[in-house]
Design goal:
heterodimer, A: alpha+beta, Alpha-Beta Plaits, 3 helices, B: mainly alpha, elongated
Chain lengths: 130, 477
C-alpha cells in the first residue's frame, strides 16, 4: 500500500501549477489502474473521528495531525514486492512539492504468526531431541 | 465474457449516478466510490464514468481551466464578500481548486468541471458565511443569493448566472484599474485576481522579483480598502475616463506579452491571450461596447495573428519581410478586421484606431512587397500628432524610408537622434544602420549596428543584429 502523507503541499501553488499536478496525478493513477498494478485508490478527508477506550466509548473529532504528516490518500498496489512498490512511489507527482509516500507491504498473515510458527517449530525440535 | 460484464456493470452504475445526481448533476462521483473495489475477475474499470468509451485515453483538463475558472470565481465571490475582502475570495477559490486536485485524480474529471468548481466554491462560501457573524449583519443582502445557491437551481451556465458573472468580472476589472492605484500595481492586480496568475508568474512576466510583485499587490489591496473603492461599474459621467484606464491596463498587459514573446517565457505569450480575453469581455458589455474598445481589440488581434511567426524554429527573430505569411492566423485576422470595422464609429478617434489600422495594412498585404506603405505613412502622420512618443516617430521613419527612400528615412531618424530621447534605444541605431546599408554606405552602417548591438538585451535581437553586422562588415572589406 502506498500512503500519501502531507496535506498542504499545494499551498503556494498557482492555479496553473495545480492543474499541472492534477493532470500528472490523473495520468499516473490511470496508468497504474489500466495496467492492473493499482487495484484501488482514494483520497481521504482531512478529519474524521477517533474512536478509543473500552468498547469504543470515546469518540472524538480528529485526527488533527500536523499537515506534513496528515494522510491524504492511498493506493493499493498489486506488485511483486517492496522494490517494485518503491519504484512506483518514486513516480508520485506530489514528491516535487513535499508529499511523502509511505510504502507498506501488505502481510498475508498476522505479523505474530511467524513468531508463533517459529516458536512451535523450536518446541517440536526440542521435543524431538528430548 | 469479462468485457461484456464490465460494460453492463458500468451502464448500471451510470444509471445509478444519473438518479443520484438530479440537481447536483455537476458532482458525478456518486458511482465512483463503488468502483474502487478489489475484484480479480474483472478488468480494472475506468475511473471516469464519463469517458468509459475511450478506456485507453487519459482524460485531460481543458487548457488553463484552473487558471480561467479561478479568475471567474474570484469575481463572483468578490461580489458576495465585498471588495475589501478580496483576499478571502481568493482563498476560497484556492480551496476549491485544492478539493479538485485531491479528488479528480482518483475519480476522474467531472462531466462539467467548471460547474463542479463553481459549486464547490459556493459551498465553501456558504460555510464561511455561516461561520462568520458577518452573515447575520449582511443577511438581508446575502439571503436571496444564498437561497438561490442552496436550492441548486442556479445552473452556472444559465443566463442569469452568466450575466451576473460577466458583470462581476467587469466590476473587478474597473476596481483593479482604478486611477488611484499605481499603474504597475493595476496590471499586477488584474493578472492575479482576474486572470488567475500567481505572483511568481507575474514576476517573470514583468521581469520583477516575486517580492516586488507581492508588495505591489499588498499595496493595491490596501489602497482599495483605504479609499473604499466601490465594487461597481462607474456611473456614466466617470465612465469614459475610467474606461480609458481599463483599456490602458489591458494595452499594457498585451505589450508585456508581445515584447518578450520570443520563447523565453510561455507565460508572456499568454498575457496576450489574457489581454484579448479581457477586452472581448469588455466589448460585449453595454458599458465597454465603445469604438475605442473595438479599436484596441482589433489592434491586439491583428498583432497576435502574427506573433507565432516572429520567431523561427531556432528561436531567431524574423523580420516582417522574412515571415511566412501563410502561417499567420487567419482566424485572428478575421476577428481583428471585424472589430476594426466596429471601431469605425462615432467622432472620436484614438491612438488605438491608428495602430489597429497600421496592423491591418500589414495583415492585408499578401506579400511584403505588396504592403501599402503610402497608406501606412499617412496613418503614422496622423498618429504622431496624437501621440508624441519618439518610438512611434521612429516607426514612422521606417514608413518614410519605404515611401521616399532611405535618405529621407535617415533625415527623420537623425532628427530623433538629436532629440536624445532614444539614446539607449537599440532600434534607433538598428534602423539607421539599415538605412545606410540600403544606400551601400556600409562603413556608416557598421558603426550604427555596433551601437545597436551594445544596447540590446534580448538574445534573439542580438543574434539578428550580429548577423546583419557581419553582412555589412564583409561588404566593407
Amino acid at each position: 500500500m502506498l500512503i500519501f502523507r502531507g496535506t498542504d503541499w499545494h499551498k503556494g501553488l498557482s492555479p496553473e501549477e495545480m492543474q499541472k499536478v492534477a493532470d500528472q496525478w490523473m495520468a499516473w493513477f490511470r496508468g497504474l489502474m489500466d495496467k492492473g498494478i493499482a487495484t484501488a485508490g482514494n483520497p481521504l478527508d482531512r478529519e474524521g473521528k477517533l474512536v478509543s477506550g473500552k468498547k469504543g466509548r470515546v469518540v472524538a473529532d480528529g485526527p488533527f495531525a500536523e499537515s506534513k504528516e496528515a494522510i491524504a490518500g492511498y493506493f493499493l498496489l498489486k506488485v511483486s514486492g517492496v522494490e517494485e512498490a518503491v519504484a512506483i512511489a518514486k513516480q508520485c507527482p506530489g514528491l516535487d512539492y513535499g508529499t511523502v509516500v509511505e510504502v507498506r507491504p501488505l502481510l498475508e498473515t498476522c505479523p505474530f504468526q511467524k513468531e508463533i510458527d517459529a516458536g512451535r517449530a523450536d518446541a517440536q525440535l526440542a521435543h524431538a531431541a528430548a | 465474457m469479462a468485457e461484456i460484464r464490465s460494460s453492463a456493470e458500468e451502464r448500471h452504475e451510470e444509471a445509478l449516478a444519473d438518479l443520484n445526481a438530479t440537481s447536483r448533476e455537476d458532482q458525478s462521483f456518486a458511482s465512483a466510490a463503488t468502483k474502487n473495489r478489489i475484484d480479480e475477475n474483472l478488468p480494472a474499470p475506468p475511473q471516469n464514468a464519463d469517458t468509459a468509451a475511450s478506456g485507453d485515453e487519459i482524460p485531460r483538463l481543458a487548457e488553463h481551466l484552473f487558471r480561467h475558472e479561478s479568475g471567474k470565481l474570484v469575481s463572483i465571490l468578490t461580489g458576495i464578500f465585498g471588495i475589501e475582502r478580496l483576499q478571502l475570495a481568493e482563498d476560497v477559490v484556492q480551496e476549491a481548486l485544492v478539493r479538485a486536485l485531491q479528488t479528480w485524480p482518483y475519480y476522474g474529471i467531472p462531466k462539467n468541471p467548471a460547474a463542479w468548481l463553481t459549486q464547490t466554491a459556493k459551498n465553501l462560501t456558504l460555510d464561511v458565511l455561516r461561520r462568520e457573524k458577518v452573515f447575520r449583519e449582511k443577511e438581508e443582502q446575502i439571503a436571496p443569493v444564498m437561497e438561490q445557491w442552496s436550492s441548486g437551481l442556479t445552473h452556472p451556465e444559465g443566463r442569469s448566472a452568466d450575466s451576473e458573472l460577466k458583470d462581476d468580472g467587469l466590476r473587478l476589472m474597473f476596481v483593479c484599474c482604478h486611477p488611484s492605484i499605481p499603474q504597475d500595481a493595476q496590471a499586477a492586480l488584474a493578472l492575479k485576481t482576474l486572470c488567475g496568475f500567481s505572483p511568481a508568474e507575474i514576476a517573470s512576466a514583468f521581469l520583477a522579483t516575486e517580492a516586488a510583485i507581492a508588495k505591489r499587490l499588498v499595496r493595491a489591496r490596501q489602497r482599495i480598502r483605504d479609499l473604499h473603492i466601490p465594487f461597481e461599474i462607474p456611473p456614466d459621467p466617470d465612465l469614459t475616463a475610467r474606461l480609458d484606464g481599463v483599456l490602458q491596463t489591458i494595452y499594457l498587459l498585451f505589450n508585456e506579452g508581445y515584447k518578450a514573446s520570443t520563447g523565453e517565457s510561455l507565460v508572456r505569450q499568454e498575457l496576450c491571450s489574457e489581454a484579448i480575453r479581457l477586452a472581448t469581455l469588455l466589448a460585449q458589455h453595454r458599458v465597454g461596447n465603445q469604438p475605442r474598445t473595438h479599436a484596441l481589440l482589433a489592434l491586439m488581434l491583428l498583432n497576435a495573428a502574427r506573433l507565432a511567426e516572429r520567431v523561427d524554429n531556432d528561436g531567431n527573430l524574423l523580420r516582417l519581410k522574412e515571415q511566412d505569411r501563410s502561417k499567420w492566423d487567419r482566424g485572428l485576422i478575421a476577428r481583428g478586421m471585424f472589430h476594426l470595422a466596429e471601431s469605425a464609429d462615432g467622432d472620436t478617434v484614438t491612438a488605438y484606431h491608428f495602430e489597429a489600422a497600421i496592423a491591418a495594412c500589414h495583415c492585408a498585404a499578401p506579400t511584403y512587397e505588396e504592403t501599402d506603405w503610402p497608406r501606412i505613412l499617412s496613418i503614422y502622420d496622423r498618429l504622431v500628432e496624437l501621440d508624441d512618443s519618439p518610438v512611434i516617430a521612429l516607426n514612422r521613419a521606417v514608413a518614410v524610408a519605404q515611401v521616399h527612400g532611405p535618405e529621407a528615412g535617415i533625415k527623420v531618424a537623425q532628427e530623433l537622434e538629436k532629440g536624445r530621447q532614444l539614446d539607449s534605444y537599440h532600434l534607433l541605431y538598428a534602423v539607421l544602420g539599415e538605412f545606410e546599408a540600403q544606400l551601400n554606405e556600409f562603413q556608416k552602417a557598421v558603426v550604427y549596428l555596433r551601437k545597436a548591438l551594445e544596447l540590446t538585451q534580448l538574445k534573439s535581437e542580438q543574434t539578428l543584429l550580429a548577423r546583419r553586422l557581419q553582412d555589412c562588415e564583409e561588404q566593407v572589406r
